[in-house]
Amino acid sequence: MGATVSSSGPPISVDGLRVERRGRLVLPSISLEVRDGVVTGLLGPSGSGKTTLMRAIVGVQIVAAGRVTVLGSPAGSPENRWRVGYVTQDPSVYADLTVRENLRYFARILDAPAGRIEEAIATVDLGAHAEQVVRTLSGGERSRVSLASALLGHPQVLILDEPTVGLDPVLRRDLWETFRRLAEEGTTLLVSSHVMDEADRCDELLLMRDGRIVATGSPESLRRATGSDDLEDAFLALAEGA
Amino acid sequence: MSARVTLATASRVLRQIRRDPRTLALILVVPPALLTLFRFVFDGQPQTFDRVGPPMVGIFPFVSMFLVTSIAMLRERTTGTLERLMSLPLAKLDLLLGYGIAFAVLAVAQATLTALVAFGPLGLDSAGPVWLIVLLAVANAVLGMALGLCLSAFAETEFQAVQFMPAFVLPQLLLCGLLVPTDQMATLLYWVSYLLPMTYAYDALARATADELDARLLLDAAVLAGAIVLSLMLGAATLRRRTP
Q: Taking the complete model, does pTM exceed 0.95, yes or no?
């Protein structure tokens, strides 16, 4: 279902995006493209502007200049609210509702069939906690509720801001497998992380620093370009060379 | 706008309140309890109680819904759920009307319970129809909800939001004519009182109590309806798809 893209261009394209937040220039002028049906990792230290860039792609960020096009329409356009899923860094779900009540509400907004709720619960492995009030869940479980909410509408583009922070290694691996599977089904994923060891799980990388893209390419090509086996070293080489 | 999303929002808000039985109990129990207190404070002046009692039945929902909504909406803003909703196919009006319906349902329960206690065991008398007082109470609740919602945009913390109640509601209570008729106030205040929606709410309630179902009551009701629409529009203006 997620495989069809309404236009022939890349699912996400950012051109000369400039964002100021509270008087600070967070993104001076950023341009990039994200390929269809792959997992693109947005990597960089915290404070490098990853969240701001993602917010601009979702269309919830006030931008000063530039153009952000998602699935052929301007970011945040009414049609994109159906097709773009967004998971914020802090889980944005209702703490006083149960897991299933949260999902039922978001599913009704997206007009998703009831079966999607069970699928989403299974995907994030929260079946045992479905009737639990979100407030009583652990931090990692809460972020999975937030992720499940974003999966309900079968989005064609999924923007995930640090989705694996605070998760145990087993779950982290499982979630990356889920992201992989979604990509194989045709979903375009943009996943941010500040942990370099997650970079190897992505097909494409966007390395960010101080509001600028310092390198792009597959993990393999970045290794080759810098001559280092370790992606962290490669990032350092690229960041300092930039 | 869609009825599906509006109703989903209303039932979600009601479910959240049901999850918090203490808040629900406070909403339902405090107004009848306060009215009982009034009844015995004015034990020696039953005519005063008969004058201020019925309008109070109608004004309580304004105050409680103002408070509950401003905190609820502030929470939506600070926990990121509002941002999620704004990135979903939900119209701003779906959210506003969803809240409006949920709190109107609560207001019906609150006003009915308060009226039952007031006109039953407390022996309050109203010359006019009690259903009209309950209906005006529900309109006040929706007005309080809409005002709380748009003011919550100006609060960054719950501490600030709670202070909006003495800052915006208390002056209206003082000026609405409940304590002192507006024409006995300083001229400036008399004029100011006509700019405040609660003055019309009180006047309508007082007329309903006195069974003066006249054109002035209709005018009050029209002003109230206008104030509700205006504050819902202001509330919608404070909901932004894009934020800094």
A: no
